[in-house]
Amino acid sequence: MEDAEIIGLYFARDERAIRETGSKYGAALSRLAERITGSPQDAEECVNDVMLSTWNAIPPAKPQSLFAYLVTAVRNTAINLAVRSKAEKRGGNQMRLALDELSESLPAPDDVETALSENEAAERMRKFVASLPKETGRMFILRYVYLLSVKEIAEKMGVGVSKVKVTLHRTRRALKDFLGGEEL
Amino acid sequence: MNAMTLFKALSHLNPQDIADAWNGTAPEEAKTEPEQFYAIPAEIPKRNNHPRRLLLRRITEAAACAACLALAVTALLKFRALSGRTPLNSAPNQTAAVTVITTERTGTDTRKTESVTGTADTVSTEPGTEQTTQDTAPLQTKQTAGDTSGSAAETTGSAASGSQTAESSTAETTSVSAEQAEAKIPVMVVLGDGAQTQDNGAGWSILKDKAAIEAYLAGDSPEVTVGIGLKSPELKNKILSNPAMIRVRWMSDDARWSSYGITSAEVKNGVLHLGIAVYCADSAGDFARSPWVYDAALICSADELPDLRDVQITKTEFTESEASGIREWMRFDEQLDPDLYLTVKK
Question: B238-253 pLDDT, tens per residue?
Fold first, then answer.
């Protein structure tokens, strides 16, 4: 079923909307949540929460891309859950790796950017991703939004693992320059 | 700001970008491009078939044909001249010393050896017409099968004769003077661009056999990555000023060409290790200043791949490359292709 039809079901308050969403995107969303939380149970909980919140949000919300909307929602929910459950270790393996990698892109601690708010950071990230070549931007998003491993990205994009590694490394460095050089 | 802030901020990217990244819309866009490009106009304008117009059209076509023929002949002559080993580099102050050779192994263990030597401003089409001044190598020399002039030898002055598994010829080896010998050094081509180190295994590639190099140069090797211009001015200058260039296809989405220059060389245990760094010309002006880039491309189109010319091996150069980190890309434990080596006229 096309996304527009599924959204139409939400607007009609037809519960098939949740079923169709789950059958079309449920597996991908669960994998994303599990990469962040590191736990299948937490991942399932995240996806269920998102399904409910989506049902409550649409309408009035009418996302242009249902999948992107769901990814964003799952990602945020999973991050919050991972941060809350610090008992063992924070988040899943891929999330920890992603955080480690992203920390390379941070400006110096005494930089004026230190106090950058999440909204400002989001705006900058949007600008940064928009400035990237299409292929590079895609790799960056697959790695740090979807938390795919380098190997998975290489397979998905049909390129070599080393190319993905190199591209991501350079992109992180470019991000560091971008965050450090951009004026407020 | 911390990494978590960045990580969370990524949730707020443009939703379309997020969706496109997953779905991979780029190939679809590429697919539609030719259709737009070659779209047939709805209405084709009619030709003016007046006799004078027709005659004028015929004359124009004939002139165009003649011009094309002249261009083709010129290009053919130039290509033949290049294939005939005319030096490609016109830099007057280069002191070339060594030439990389490729050979073909046949079923009868006979090797066809081609060599080109010469300084940058000297035309030389015969093997052995230019003497090198190499004194760095613990070279292992060997006579090719079928050569009647006699023999091969361990070169003098080597600290240790590196045994090379690549050499498997049945020719006998006897000692001769270094001046008469043709030293063959197995070649390992190490490609990289300085952006990475060996630690993470990225940013460099080792091409150890002829087929891999040919695939690389043809742009068919997705595993090979090239640089994006993150070069220090010193490295950039070093690459641009180096006479030995090969040219490879840029593997990124814009499919432009970039150029590699040899920036380091070392003979270790009888094996020559070449460090090659990339310089991707970022503007037409760079190409204009480096016309030899185009010449090198012609060589790479020919059958004798890789044709790395006028490699100068000096300790100084190696030391410099070590300082720039290029040495980190080198590996010394790879099995080399016996059909790929470098000859040195002693």
Answer: 544 543 343 333 333 3
